[in-house]
Amino acid sequence: MTALSDVSTHAMASARWRPGEIAFWVLALACAFLFPSRYLIMTDIVRLALFALSLDLILGYAGIVSLGHAAFFGVGAYSAGLLALHGIINEPVIALVVAGLVAAVLGFLTSFLVIRGVDLTRLMVTLGIALLLEALAERFSNITGGTDGLQGIEMQPILGLFAFDMFGKTGLFYSLIVLFILFLLARRVVHSPFGLSLRAIRNNPLRAAAIGMPVNRRLIAIYTLAAFYAGIAGALFTQTTALASLDVFSFERSADLMLVLVIGGTGYLYGGLIGAVVFKMLQELFQSITPQYWLFWIGLVLVVMVLVGRERIHRWVLFVPNLVIRQFAGRKAVVAVPERDAP
Amino acid sequence: MASVLTNLFDGVAYGMLLFVLACGLAVTLGLMNFVNLAHGAFAMAGGYICAVLVNNSGWPFFAALPLAFVASAAIGIVLERTLYRHLYTRSHLDQVLFSIGLVFMSVAAVDYIMGSSRIFIKLPAALEGQLDLFGVGIGRYRLMIVVICGLLTLALQLILAKTRFGSRLRAAVDDPRAAIGLGINVPQVFAFTFAFGCGLAGLGGALSAEILGLDPYFPLKFMIYFLIVVTVGGSSSITGPFLASLLLGIADVAGKYYVPKMGPFVIYTVMIVILLWRPNGLFGRTAAR
pLDDT tens across B195-245, in order? Predict the structure, then answer.
């Protein structure tokens, strides 16, 4: 058996769809049909899930800690808003892709800044880029609408067939389909040899380079892809809410996103999706207890999660589902075991 | 010409204030390699303690300043012993998440206790108004800041360079294992340094209520400034962060005065460029730790 076919067998084996995954998506679709009064919050969750998926690609698979991922979200949101506002591209799906591509271009350009330096420099540079864009958006308020945001965005029907309704039904199914398609793409990417090489780079860049991987080129590629995903998430935000304001760039958005991903766990793609559901539920819960001070509880969750240890919490949470799955599908089938994060 | 000099002086005062606020972070982040985004929370604590003492309990301003230092240092040492200590060896991601969590909690807690509006500290009459030195208007309050912060900087430099504690700290930072082997109580040194840094931040917070504005979002608003001081200044000595904060202070005041439309744009660009040009900071050591 040659080395190449060895890799492909391994990749194929790990890429097989597990029963748990199918159950997850069936459940997601079922929720969309079961709770017709909750379309708006579910759309919110789907958008957040897509955004978290994008962060997972660089954090969980490439080990890049970013404090400014909202930059790409914001660029996507404003691109989609401006395209619709000035009637440049009226078809939402095409506008979505274009907005994603704009964010990807930005991601490609800034990736050269990000791959230089170590963790701390990366933190500062990603944070700096997001703040820079926020300052720019505020400066050019004649284009972006400043603190008021873009107003009067009217979305055309999707593919000319499905108009956005005020209950958000179209918006939800649209977002869900986009999420699923992009998830499939991400799944394909991380299970490919390219994805495997990313994990090698995350675990030890020096060794990865020593066995001949083009470390920087791989990092640039995944960073650009993640920027594309974040841009799409931002564009979905604008298209489903008909709104884009300065807070799309805010630091809190990037920080919340890290929390979402950390709740769900990094490095197995579902982390962002599960995290988004849990995060939104927590947010609703805290806001119903103390409307103004829910930030405190979010902070407490972060602190406790770190102190107890993220892996330990995930092990506890996954204990029951894994037990159930084992009963049905035999010993080896495990729902999901979050991998260790970057060392 | 006079207005240029006045601006320069304001910039220096602003920069010195930033230095006092951020130099504790230079130790935790720069020397101990701990990403502490919650540093501003200690500054905010000091500021609010000073405000409560002066405004509500009628303490004189100059008596409240040392207490702001002591109280912030006490909070710092308690948190260090109970929480931070466990995270020194963890990944940067964990440290970032933990300290963001602390920031969020402090913001909401202060908002809950003190209200969300900006607060002011009643200043003694001697500190209000301007002096006129050779036709250059110099704010009395800013002059006091320059004096206090200048003395503190000198004292810090002397402590680090000349005292036994300073050499212990440098040894503990350079090589903790060897330092332990030599009988230096490294955790104690770190705890003390951490508390001292928090105390300085608290003092800075109390001083900055007048200039930077003090509200519950202080730790988030100025986080980036503290980080800039440390990352741009490097961590090999305290001269680096000192020069960096002066540079930042002068650039920020001049930027706001001469090109108000560009806003904070200039500073972020300069920061990114410097970090790309020298990832270890302008005055940092050449080898990454």
Answer: 999 999 999 999 988 888 888 999 988 888 888 888 888 766 788 888 889
Tell me whether residue A334 is exposed, middle or buried, using C-beta atoms within 10 angstroms of its C-beta: 0 to 12, 13 to 18, 19 or more.
Answer: middle
For B203, the token pair is: 């003092």
pTM summary value: 0.87
Question: What residues does B131 pair with on adjacent strands?
Answer: B138
DSSP string, A124-171: HHHHHHHHHHHHHHHHTHHHH-GGG-B----PPPBTTTBPPPTTSHHH
Interface contacts (A, B; CB < 8 Å): 128
Give chain B positions within 8 Å (CB) of A252: 220
Which DSSP string do the residues of A248-312 spell out, in sequence order?
GG-HHHHHHHHHHHHHH-SSSSHHHHHHHHHHHHHHHHHHHH-SS-HHHHHHHHHHHHHHH-HHH
Residues written for chain B: 289
CB contact under 8 A, B90 and A306: yes
User: Which chain A residues are Cβ-neighbours of B227 within 8 angstroms?
Assistant: 123-124, 127
Contacts of A127 in chain B (CB under 8 A): 224, 227
Q: Which letter does DSSP use for residue B119 in this model?
A: B
Please tell me which of the candidates A128, A258, A294 has its beta carbon nearest to residue B271.
Answer: A128
Asked if B102's CB is within 8 angstroms of A299's CB, the reply is: yes
Average pLDDT over residues A241-266: 87
- Closest Cβ–Cβ partner in A65, A121, A295 for B104: A295
Which residues neighbour B32 within 8 Å (Cβ) at sequence distance 6 or greater? B88, B173, B190, B193, B194
Residue B181: predicted pLDDT = 93
Lowest-confidence segment of A181-190, A257-266, A331-340, B160-169 by average pLDDT: A331-340
Q: Does B224 touch chain A (CB under 8 A)?
A: yes
Whether residue A303 and residue B101 make contact (CB cut-off 8 A), yes or no, is yes
CA A48, A54, A55, A59 torsion: positive or negative? positive
From B59's Cα to the closest Cα of chain A, the distance in A is: 31
Mutate to test the interface with A, among B36, B268, B270, B282 (most CBs of A within 10 A): B268
pLDDT bucket at A218, cuts 50 / 70 / 90:
very high
- For residue A162, pLDDT over 90 is answered with no
Question: B282 and chain A: CB distance < 8 Å anywhere?
Answer: no
pLDDT of residue A319: 76
Question: Does residue B111 contact residue A291 with C-beta atoms inside 8 Å?
Answer: no
Please tell me the distance in Å from A113's CA to the nearest CA on chain B. Answer: 7
Q: Which residues contact A48 (CB under 8 A, 6 or more apart)?
A: A233, A257, A260, A276, A279, A280
Per residue in B79-110, pLDDT tens? 999 999 888 888 888 899 999 999 999 999 99
Task: State the CB neighbour count (10 A cutoff) for residue A161.
Answer: 7
pLDDT of A35 higher than 70: yes
ipTM metric: 0.84
Do A341 and B98 make contact, defined as CB atoms within 8 angstroms? no
Residues of A in contact with B35 (CB under 8 A): 119-120, 123
Chain A residues within an 8 Å CB radius of B102 = 299, 303
In the predicted model, is pLDDT for residue B52 greater than 60?
yes
